[in-house]
Structure formats: structure tokens, C-alpha cells
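Help wanted!
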Amino acid sequence: MLARRRHFWRSDARLGYLFVAPQLLGFVAFVLGPLVALVWFSLHDWNALSGAFQFVGMGNYDKLFADPLARQALWNTFLFSAGLVPFNIALALGLAIALNQKLPATTAFRTAFFSPVVISLVAWSIVWEFILAQNGALNGFLRVIGLSGTNWLYSPLTAMASVITVQVFKNVGMNMLLFLAALQTVPAEQIEAARLDGAGVWAVFRHITLPYISPVLLLVTVLTVIGSLQVFSQIMILTAGGPGYATTVLEYFFWKEAFQFGQFGYASAVAVVIFVIALVLTALQWQLRRRVVFYEE
Amino acid sequence: MRHRLLALGLVVMLATLAGCSSSGSTASAAPGSVNLRVTVWTGNAGHLALLNSIADAYKKTDPRVGTITFDTLPFDQYSTILTTQLAGGNPPDLGWILEQNAPDYIGQGVLADLQPYLSTVQGYGLDDLTSSAMSLWTRGNSIYGYPFSTSPYAVFYNADLFTSAGLQTPDQQLAAGHWNWTTLAADAKAIAAANAGKYGYIIQDFDYSYWPALAELWRGFGADPWNADGTQCTMTAQPMVDALTFYRNMVYQDKSVPGPGVVADFFSGQVGLTSVQISSAQLLKTASFKWGIVPLPAGPAGDSQVIGQAALAVFSAGKHKDVAEGFLAFMTNAANTKQLAEYFPPPRKSLLTSSVLAAANPLLSAQQLQSAVINSIESGKVQPSHQNFAQINDAVQAALAPAWDPTANLQSVLQATCQALQPLLSH
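Answered by r_m:
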């Protein structure tokens, strides 16, 4: 036994582990450690103002499952993600295909569509708040072309649609860039061969392009779904979870409980629920890859 | 074996360090070793210069003090950041406290009782403090904060818009004895009608979310969201219904008040009248229009003034409470309050004079100071506040949201509001 251990520390494996150690230490200190602490906090009733910290076991989770506001936040989160993910991916893919040509203007367009990604999130949201105001730019533009706008941020349905759209426009450039890179890997001769055989544009896309980009498509979907569960700043600036609770998603609900009401224990329980949802969705999508993703190395 | 010894050594070292870090009593603190941190929400260079000069003067009198730092936190996140610091075990020693947080902070024991110390300070003048200013910060004999700023709400008006609409100005209406909400509504309607794209009146802080700002309007109608001891929801009472109906008429019938989602600002000349704290007069230094200021108008229930407050307090979780109390007593004594009065209207009877307040409000005349400032400070009440305010604020804001729809049934919205509010009042 001693001989095997000595062999291990002298082998290449040692070098490998040493290289990974900093990342692993960082992961433990900044991700795993806080996660364990989060679950620990969620088992307590922790009032931030008075400092009271009492063990309540599953009390916070019982409260969470009985809380009608939490249920509304869960439903809003589902609506938000279900609206955002297909919209984002379809738009990103469409833009990538449109801009996957060697025309002089495409670089300018690619830059234009990517630039929102690097703009400050808060600045982006504040400007959109002015655009979507009842006497703002969007309604002004609609009036010019003869349509009447509505109070975008103050009626429940349009408020949700507005925050989804603002988020999509912010990040679609990143996904577009990833799809552009993936589209470059599709072999041109296969597309030519298919065209010669009489395949139409849609058939080429479905049977050649899509399979080739499917690994990136899965990656983008997983990232976009997880990202949609983390949206906070836009909602805080545009609607503050309103009107009423129409745009209060779980992340915003968590922030209110923690930093407005000082209920750190209950908020930790909400955060654990968000984490579990993200974990389950990611696991589901990862399972799908066996059926959906081709040409995986 | 070697690894185990190393690990043991590390643990022993860490334990010793942890043991050493617990602070001892500051009574035996070495000179210059106590560093105080005061959280404030102002980043204004003039304010900070004054605060730092008072701090420097205090350091000369108390040898225990090393440094006094004024930590500026952004105003709209002030409560959030403060809560985080308290929860994270990093409490400041002193801090400015918003009036709406007073009941919660006092009720949860966040603020230290200053009365025992202040009553021993020679010449402090506890009875110089007006009882109306202190009401929010005292519980029986205990004092939890010194309201260094008591700022009344008043009505600012755009004199140019009044003249162009051919109306008497509110100053003239006040002098003639008919300055009330009905008159204000009529003025607002006329101004909006005479100027396309401009509005008549706006409640500056409201923005269809911060509903306590509506107190500027509903107090004149004798309305309040809950009864005097805060146990019963009174949103469905007739005075409140009348007040909110009056407001909604201005928005949807007169079209003189901007509705939700509309961006409008008095200080850039888009609105004829606004009700806001008098400190906003500073924003009019570079105004492109002539303006005036009058107290809040009287309503069907008579005259009712509203004040905003900010207090200085010592945190009970702070590590140097005795030094902090000494600094607070120094900063808030009569002499330093007079200096602070350059920016912050004081709660001391001896200083509520036009000459003192003129320094803080150079843009207001003596007559304006008397009618819009001094009278309001002496008789005004703070905006609605209650224990558990954070959750109450959130619940009422969400419940009132449907009321800002033109087709809403106000009675049923107010009933739903009381249903949401009542359980939180008896918490």
C-alpha cells in the first residue's frame, strides 16, 4: 500500500492535480462553501435586524410551499423563462444565419447586435425604462406610424413581455456569436452536395446544419435557461416586481425577503429552491443530449 | 505523522488568533485606538465638510478617538446596505436613520437608548427639543435617535405657468384665505389645459410606488392608512375614499396630474405645482422659471402639515457605544446643531427662527420661511410609519396598483388593500 502511494505522488497524476488545485480551492471556497452555508441558513429563522438566529428545521420550506406569493413568483419565473428562452434562441439563430455571409456590411451588423452584451446592465435598463414610459420613445414612434401604444410597464401582461424583451435584446448578441462560430464548422461541401441532390433551404437546415450545430445549441439552451433564472437588475429597475406582483420572479422574491424584509433564513430557502430548479433543468437537458446531439467528440 | 503535527499546529495558531481578536472594554482603551464609523446617505461636499469639521472638533475633546469616518451609502439602497452590514456582523457605530425605519429599528433593538447618557451631559438641553419632532424617536422615557433634520413638505409652484394661464398665484390665494386642495385642483386643471404637453400638479416622490407620499394629500382630508395606535386598517374609511377619489379625478378627468408610467418633472418646468420637501429648493437655483413656495393646502379636515425626518442614532451592536454616544451628544448639542442648521432644519425650539433657517434656505424669504417652514415643523406629522414597515410598504404598494387604472372600482381596491394590510398591522 505504501508503495502505491509513493508511486502516485511521483507520477504525472501529481502534476495534474496540482494544476487543478487552485481552481478546485476557488470552487470550494467561493461556490461549494457558500452553498453549504446557504442550506444551513435556510434551516434557521434569521432576522437580520435583531440578529436572532434560531433553528427551525424545515419550517422555512413549509412556509415557502404555503406562501401564495412564492407560488406566484414560481409561476412568473416559469412564464419568464418560457417566454425568454425560445425567443432568445430563435432570434440568435436567425441573426447568426443571416449574418453568416461574407458581405461587407455583416461585420458592422455583428458588432451592432453584440454591443448590448457589453453595455452596463443598469444603464441598459434605465434607458429602456424611458423608452417604454407611457410618454416615451416607443409610444412616440408608434404614434408616428399610426398605431397606438399602451402603458407597457404598468399592465401585467405587457410588463412581463417588456422585461422579457429587454433581457433578450441584451443577451441575444452573445448567443448569436456562439451560433456564428458553430455555423462555421458546417462543411460547405455537404451543403453543396445536398443542394445538387435537390434539397430545399429548409431541408438543408434541418438535416445538415442543425445536427452540426446541435452541441452548441444544447450549450446555449442550458446557459440561457440558467441565465433566465438569475435575471434581477432589469426587473428591479423597470418594474420593481410590479405592477402588483406581475413580474416578481423567484430571484426578485428572494431579494425582497432578504434585503427588504431582513428575513435571511427564509430568503436562503428561496435561494435553495432556485438552485434545485436550475439543477433539475440542467440535468434534464444533459440527459437529452444523448438523443439530440450528434457528432459529439 | 508529520502531516498531523502540521495540521494540529495550524489549528492551535488559528484558535489563538481567533481568541485574541475579541475586543476588550473601551473604558480601558488606549488613546487614539477607537475608530468610529458613521453611515450617512449624503455625498454632498458641503455636508461632508461640515460633518468632518465637527468630528475634528470632537477628536480634540476625547483622547480615545482615533478617526471618525463618514461612510456614504447611496440613498435608495441605504436601508438595504445597512441591514446587510448589521446581519453580516459589521455594524457601524453611528448612522443616519430614515423615519420609516424608526419603528422597526427601535422595536427590534437595533438602536441604543441615548437618554441615560444625554441626561448626564451638562448644558445639552433635552427640553429644548420639540416634542412633535421627537415623537417618532422616543418610547416613554427612552430616546433612540436625534432627529437632526426635520424637513417639512411644501408646495412649490411655477409662477410663469400661473401668469400665462391668467391665474392668481398660490401666494395670493393663501393671503386671501382660500388656499385649499379644491383651489389647487382648479389651478392645476387650468394650467394643464392652457399648456399642451405640460401638467398641473405632481406629487414628486410618489411615482405610483412610494404611496406614503400621498399623505401630503390625504392628511388634508383627515385620512390615514391605519388608526392612531396602528392596529386597525382605515383605508376603506370615507376620508381615504374621498382623498383618493379626488386624486384620481385629477389624473383621469382633469388630466392635470400625470398617470403611471408618464415621465414628468416640476424642476425642469414641465409641471405647474408640486409637493415635495423644502430642501428641494436647491434644485431651483438654476431654474429657468420664476417660482414660489407655500405650505401644503388645507383640506376638508382642515390644515395638516407633513414633515420628513432623519435622525442620528447609535447602534446597539456597535463595539464602541460609549465613545459613539459621546460623539453624538457633541454633534447634536445646541452649538453644533446651529452649524448643522445651515443644511438641516433643527428640532430645537431655540433654533426655529427665521434668522437661523435663512442660512439653510437662502432662496426663501423670511415670510416664506415662517409660513412654509417654521409653522410646518412645529405642527407637522411624519408620513405613515409602523413596525414591520418594509412588508407593509410592499403589500400596500401591490394592493393599490389596480387603483391607478382608470376603470378601477376604488372601493373594492381599498377593501382588498385592507385585507392585505390588516394581518401585517397586528403582527
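OP: Thanks! One thing I noticed: Chain B touches chain A at residues 79-80, 83-84, 86-87, 104-105, 108-110, 208-209, 259-264, 317, 390-391, 394, 397-399, 401-402, 404 (CB under 8 Å).
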